[in-house]
């Protein structure tokens, strides 16, 4: 007899494991099928985010930033530290132990919430309104389970360049790029998106000469133009070589390195010789082998499971969340969709606001935004007013030495409602939440301007930016 569950989640990344936990909290008999295998062939929970995404990248970003800071960031404080040495093995081991702690933490949460972890790869075998039969395959062995509700949370994988095999030794996607055993002398990166900038920064700080090749003519087109322009200047000063408007013609792997033949923005043929190459050109959804055709699950031409605004698929009682569906490929978006779906299954009426999902790029300084960019407002014909304030004259920023960047607030010209907030600063990731909260509560720039902000804090810059909308900043 196969096991029967109320809810079966396929995939245990941030979308899937959170959905499983919330479903279990709501009293459902819940299972989660997870097919992730690490190089040691052990099944692991946590998905991309915990194993080869958010968590290991942030660990390396923090370690590499400390290394750079100790070398170059302490002199202005009157501290001289000589002989800083890099032990990359130890740095990588620290990262691995954080990943291990986090993935084991989910195992603990599964046990605590009595969630059954079904080890293996899940696929629909049959089903409809009355329930579904899912097949779980692990090392050639198959078992079947029954589910009243199914939540698909199978995530995404790195997109590769056509005809350029990724061996994760010389040509790497995120998996290999997080695991270098030595610092490459010369590192090439294709794609100046989030991964390219974050991992490019890690290896630059540790000593690599990094060249990032970007196809689009504009740098960071998704960000507000003023932020992108300022960030490009700061990154150039740090020594991160970014070329936009390029076209990759050929990638050749040699015994000792990789050669990228490309055409630059002036139409000239160029060659980039590097020891290693990171390909970070976006991600594609994991729907292969899921049995979509067997049960008639609608998947679009790019492989995304089709869902409505509440993550319902075309099949009764089947939902899909996270990277495998439309919307930003972000862990917090996946998590919130997980909660949303579990609560819908429980008969609640939850709501998720897709307009207030923050984006954060963990470079130094960090880039964070929520809502619309000024160029987006222009394109939509929305009349707006903007206010901007720099960190360079903020007492707290001066105290810590983290003075680069600014806050920009965009408000509807007619109603003063905040429609976007954009921050470039070392602590932009935390500061942006004020913008998220304001927008969620449909707040106005004037609300931010009239709220008491602690002193001395970086958040005072957010308030000053709100005051700047009416040219009444107090400290400039
Ligand atoms: P995933 O995390 O991809 O998990 C899907 C899981 O499903 C996997 O474990 C997979 O093994 C499993 N699976 C797939 N198919 C099957 C199947 N048929 N049967 C069983 N199991 C299956 N986002 C942020 O918000 N902040 C960050 O700082 C951040 N940093 C990132 C850094 C990098 C280098 C990368 C690559 C991504 C980063 N992301 C970040 C994005 C984030 O990792 C994803 O948005 C998030 O992991 C999506 O969660 P998910 O649950 O939808 O899918
Ligand atoms: P991305 O979509 O952020 O950036 C890809 C970049 O590659 C784009 O600028 C694109 O124009 C460029 N590109 C595409 N094809 C190209 C080509 N042939 N040649 C040169 N350039 C090309 O994708 P990335 O960096 O791979 O990250 C994937 C996703 O993972 C992100 O979009 C994000 O959703 C998530 N992520 C989130 C992080 C965070 O929240 N801090 C960190 C890392 C990843």
TrEMBL record:
GO MF, any single term: dihydrolipoyl dehydrogenase (NADH) activity
GO cellular component annotations of the record: cytoplasm
Active-site residues, Swiss-Prot/TrEMBL: 455 (proton acceptor)
Textual note on the cofactor: Binds 1 FAD per subunit.
Main location: cytoplasm
Residues reported to bind FAD: 58, 122, 154-156, 323, 329-332
Compartments, record wording: Cytoplasm
Domain FAD/NAD(P)-binding, first and last residues per copy: 5-338
Disulfide pairings: 49-54
Pfam families the UniProt entry points to: Pyr_redox_2, Pyr_redox_dim
Keyword Nucleotide-binding attached: yes
Keywords: Cytoplasm, Disulfide bond, FAD, Flavoprotein, NAD, Nucleotide-binding, Oxidoreductase, Redox-active center
EC number: 1.8.1.4
Record's keyword annotation contains Transferase: no
BP-aspect Gene Ontology terms: 2-oxoglutarate metabolic process
Binding site for NAD(+): 191-198, 214, 282
EC primary class: oxidoreductase
Cofactor annotation: FAD
Residues of the Pyridine nucleotide-disulphide oxidoreductase dimerisation domain: 357-466
Reactions listed under catalytic activity: N(6)-[(R)-dihydrolipoyl]-L-lysyl-[protein] + NAD(+) = N(6)-[(R)-lipoyl]-L-lysyl-[protein] + NADH + H(+)
Miscellaneous remark of the record: The active site is a redox-active disulfide bond.
Family membership noted in the UniProt record: Belongs to the class-I pyridine nucleotide-disulfide oxidoreductase family.
Protein name per its UniProtKB record: Dihydrolipoyl dehydrogenase
Species, as recorded: Usitatibacter rugosus
Lineage: Bacteria, Pseudomonadati, Pseudomonadota, Betaproteobacteria, Nitrosomonadales
């Amino acid at each position: 007899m196969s096991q029967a569950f109320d809810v079966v989640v396929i995939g245990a990344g941030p979308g899937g494991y959170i959905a499983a936990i919330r479903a279990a909290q709501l009293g459902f008999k819940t299972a989660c099928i997870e097919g992730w295998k690490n190089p040691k062939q052990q099944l692991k929970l946590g998905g991309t985010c915990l194993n080869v995404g958010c968590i290991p990248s942030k660990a390396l970003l923090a370690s590499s930033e400390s290394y750079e800071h100790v070398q170059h960031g302490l002199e202005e404080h009157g501290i001289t530290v000589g002989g800083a040495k890099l032990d990359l093995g130890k740095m990588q081991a620290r990262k691995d132990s954080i990943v291990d702690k986090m993935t084991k933490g989910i195992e603990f949460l599964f046990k605590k919430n009595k969630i059954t972890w079904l080890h293996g790869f899940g696929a629909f075998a049959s089903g409809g309104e009355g329930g579904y039969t899912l097949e779980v395959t692990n090392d050639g062995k198959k078992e079947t389970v029954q589910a009243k509700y199914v939540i698909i949370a199978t995530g995404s994988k790195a997109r590769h360049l056509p005809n350029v095999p990724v061996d994760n030794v010389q040509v790497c996607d995120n998996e290999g790029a997080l695991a270098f055993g030595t610092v490459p002398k010369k590192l090439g990166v294709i794609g100046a998106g989030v991964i390219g900038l974050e991992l490019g920064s890690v290896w630059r700080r540790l000593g690599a000469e990094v060249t990032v090749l970007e196809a689009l003519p504009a740098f960071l087109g998704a960000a507000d133009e003023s932020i992108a322009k300022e960030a490009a200047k700061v990154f150039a000063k740090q020594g991160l070589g970014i070329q936009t408007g390029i076209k990759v013609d050929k990638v050749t792997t040699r015994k000792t390195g990789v050669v990228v033949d490309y055409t630059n923005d002036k139409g000239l043929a160029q060659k980039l010789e590097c020891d290693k190459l990171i390909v970070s050109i976006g991600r594609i959804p994991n729907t292969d082998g899921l049995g979509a055709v067997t049960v008639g699950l609608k998947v679009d031409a790019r492989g995304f499971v089709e869902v409505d605004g509440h993550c319902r698929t075309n099949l009764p009682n089947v939902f899909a969340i996270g990277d495998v569906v439309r919307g930003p490929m972000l862990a917090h978006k996946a998590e919130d969709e997980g909660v949303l779906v579990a609560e819908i299954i429980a008969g609640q009426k939850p709501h998720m606001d897709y307009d207030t999902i923050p984006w954060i790029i963990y470079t130094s300084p960090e880039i964070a935004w929520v809502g619309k960019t000024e160029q987006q407002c222009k394109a939509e014909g929305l009349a707006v007013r903007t206010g901007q304030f720099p960190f360079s004259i903020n007492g707290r920023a001066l105290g810590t030495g983290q003075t680069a960047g600014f806050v920009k607030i965009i408000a509807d010209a007619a109603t003063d409602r905040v429609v976007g907030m954009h921050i470039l600063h070392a602590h932009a990731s935390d500061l942006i939440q004020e913008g998220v909260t304001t927008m969620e509560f449909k707040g106005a720039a004037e609300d931010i301007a009239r709220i008491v902000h602690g002193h001395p804090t970086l958040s005072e810059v957010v308030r000053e930016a709100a005051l700047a909308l009416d040219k009444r900043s107090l400290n400039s």
